[in-house]
Structure prediction request, 149 residues.
Amino acid sequence: MTDDRDLLARAVELARRCPPSRTAFSVGALVVDAGGVVLAEGWSRRRDPHDHAEESALADLGRGWRAPPCTTVYSSLEPCSARSSRPLTCTELILAAGVDRVVFAWREPSVFVDGEGAELLRARGVEVVELPELAAAARGPNAHLLEAR
Prediction:
């Protein structure tokens, strides 16, 4: 059995790779199979200034990729439920891929939008686990956004 805390800590560390932004959070994400094998990793602004972490990781798996049973997305921040830069939110991308479990560290604060990704995922049958003991580490690369409020 894989350790959610260790895998989520890896996702949190990926957020430190994000180019800084004043208009978007720095987030890291992993896609992990049932056996604990990391299938993909991503972080915000990895290839494009508008990339989100979950979007980046899922894109590495290919267009139309479908998650095998018991696939988990680990994200340093609750998956987004609203965005203006792309047609699909990370919540919608996770649902479209058939991911059945999401583990995150930090609930999206209402700096840019009111986040409700966890609620939307749960409503569609996805198991959602929040590990708030890693929230402070996930906030670290985003301190400049939080201080500006």
Remarks:
- The chain has a mean pLDDT of 91.
- Residues 34 and 68 are 8 Å apart (CA to CA).
- Strands lie at 28-32, 38-43, 72-77, 101-106, 127-130.
